[in-house]
Amino acid sequence: MRPGRRVSARPAGLLIAVAVLAAVLVLGIGSGARFLSPGEVWAGLVDTGSPYYRIVHEMRLPRTLLGLVVGLALGLAGAIMQALTRNPLADPGLLGINAGASAAVASAAAFLGIGTFGGWVWFALGGAAVVTALVYAVGGGRAATPARLALAGAALNAALYGYVSAVTLADTASIEKMRFWTVGSLASADFATLRLVTPFILAGVLIALATARPLNALSLGDDAARALGARPGVIRGLVIVAVTLLCGAATAACGPIVFVGLLIPHLVRPLTGPDLRWLLPYTMVLAPVLLVGADVLGRVLGSPGELQVGVVTAVLGGPLFLYLVRVAK
Amino acid sequence: MITTRPRAALVGGGALLAMAAVAVLTLGTGDFPIAPGDVVKALAGQGDAAQTFIVNELRLPRVITAILVGLALAAAGAVFQSVTRNPLGSPDILGITSGAGAAALTVVILGGSSTQLSLAAVAGGVGTALVIQLIGGRRGLRGHRFILIGIGMTAVLNGIVGYLLTKGVRMESARAMLWLTGSFDGRGWEEALPLLVVLLIAVPVLVLLCGPGLRMLEMGDDIAAALGVPVNRLRNGSLLLAAVVVAFAAAAAGPVNFVALIAPNIAKRLTRAPGPNLLPSMAVGALLTVGADWLATHSGYPIPVGVVTGLLGGAYLVWLLTTERRAGRI
Question: For this UniProt entry, which segments traverse the membrane (chain B) (predicted)?
Fold first, then answer.
């Protein structure tokens, strides 16, 4: 890309995005049954004598941090999937990957009586891995077109949804356990969940970032990528591993959340251009803004209860998806 | 029009015969097994009193509902696939079933009557169809755009459904989940009658008025228009009617997924005839629902019929995508 104003604006833009993220995190910690001002949030964070210390540390901080981590994971997964499949509509939710994780978790809950996140996460990862590979294969691998991939995702989504309902219907107790989880919610966040989920997502992030440059090369086609020293097969494998880690861990922690991975890369692309070395960091900063923001919105709109974050992202993301389909050639 | 196509008649007739056989089997099985011969006698009004009661009063309403739902879903699916010229353009993929489900679920959670539930399902289904048509625009009716819009709509509606599920208290949620999956459990005349009325009105219109026109439409809009087909009116009218039919089916049994997708596909493969293949599709649809219901009730532990069709349908869809890709059609 030519050196110019746009290029030099990208680091500055990223700094602004980080500032926005910080503001949204403060908002996330501040909002709840009793709204805390930024000053009170700060006091609650650092001052053990503050009346808000316990509520901030036990409830709002883990919830907000989980939103940060999960949002980042979903956004990043969407961005690298869109790059890999050259498919503007790729999203872990739409492609059935979250449903795969859900199906595995539902099986674990119903057949093995596993009811904790620490037990679920392995199943979620396994389910996500199987579906990621399957949707890629059914969608046509390298020959995948956006429509083909979306349809493969829809097919898998439908079949897996049928399976999840069969499993949960067989056992009312597991319906009760899972009905909040299947919507996508941050409500049950705690530090234990956060500690379990972070290593997986961190590994996914590192792999995803490592693929940024070769994925750029791959966007020129396999032959060009090989000429540039990249190995297409290895890159595809790495991306699938990264998507599995990111989506599986995120889904295990808060259920299937749709559209975050679709929306953010699309909103970011006009700012950064197609270069993944900029697109990915922007996505990592702004995707949590969407998720934590949607969570706050859900708590405000749903007050005195809450509107689950998965519902908010579906309702926000759907119209954008429809718009993208409408303008697409 | 039907008499000129012996192969289609053969497919339709064969499917109906198979369906009748499965229906007799279903009517005969349960806590009080009845031999197939006795089931037929009871149906003809010549069996003994106990068997006649069990078959005609207890088991027949459920089987009739299953048959009607199968007929309705397949008819709607055939019209949708014909208009979109796409084997994947079925009401469930397009989100119309989800729309009916979301609206009906609202009524379940609010504790409304079954009449209100039916009305809501119809409004939700038809409303979703209108929104899809609105977003798709004139050109959007065909090709993959239409289907992608449907996938997007489905995702949004599923989000809303999920929210509604968390709103209900425990018992309502279990009931709502069961309804959402599609089930013939405890369905009877009350659910079957409105659907029967709609079918009696809609099917002759679809078969006699829309069928021939849709067959011409598959040759292309221009040719059809030159042959005197009112292209846009036919397309919009038949889609709307099909959306009403599928919404009534959803109101009767919940969204029994994939029958609308699979039945016309199978019928078309068997008849090898152009056009929507309405009557053979309907026969295959009824066979599918009755068969799936039998599987659902005799699979070891009882599961709703929608789970059976969902699993079959998902597998079928994966297979369809693979073959369509090889054939280079998508």
Answer: 63-81, 93-111, 117-135, 147-165, 192-210, 239-263, 301-321
Among candidate residues A179, A131, A129, the one with its CA nearest the CA of residue A158: A131
**CB distance B152–A308 less than 8 Å?**
no
Stated length of chain B: 330
Question: What's the ipTM?
Answer: 0.73
Closest chain A residue to the Cα of B152, Cα to Cα = A318
Burial class (CB in 10 A: 0-12, 13-18, 19+), B167: middle
Is residue A14 within 8 Å of A268, Cβ to Cβ?
no
Question: Is B310 in contact with A163 (Cβ distance < 8 A)?
Answer: yes
Query: pTM for this structure?
Result: 0.80
Q: Are B272 and B126 in contact (CB under 8 A)?
A: no
- pLDDT digits (tens), chain A, 329 positions: 444 445 568 888 899 999 999 999 999 998 887 788 888 888 888 888 888 888 888 888 999 999 999 999 999 999 998 888 777 777 888 788 888 888 898 888 878 877 777 778 889 889 988 988 888 787 766 666 667 777 788 778 877 877 777 777 666 666 666 666 667 778 778 888 888 899 999 999 999 999 998 888 888 877 888 888 888 888 888 988 999 899 989 988 888 788 888 889 988 888 888 889 999 999 999 999 999 999 999 988 877 778 888 889 988 888 888 887 777 65
Contact criterion met (CB < 8 Å) for A258 and B159: yes
The answer to whether the CB atoms of B160 and A162 lie below 8 A apart is: no
CA nearest to A60, candidates A40, A84, A88, A82: A40
| Neighbouring C-beta atoms of residue A284, cutoff 10 Å | 24
Asked if B304 contacts B175 with a C-beta cutoff of 8 angstroms, the reply is: no
Rounded to whole angstroms, the Cα distance separating B47 from B24 reads: 14
Torsion angle, CA of A278/A279/A281/A283, rounded to 10 degrees?
A: 160
Query: How far apart are alpha carbons A240 and A141 in whole angstroms?
Result: 12
CA distance B180 to chain A (A): 9
Give the nearest partner residue to A308 out of B156, B163, B306, using CB atoms: B163
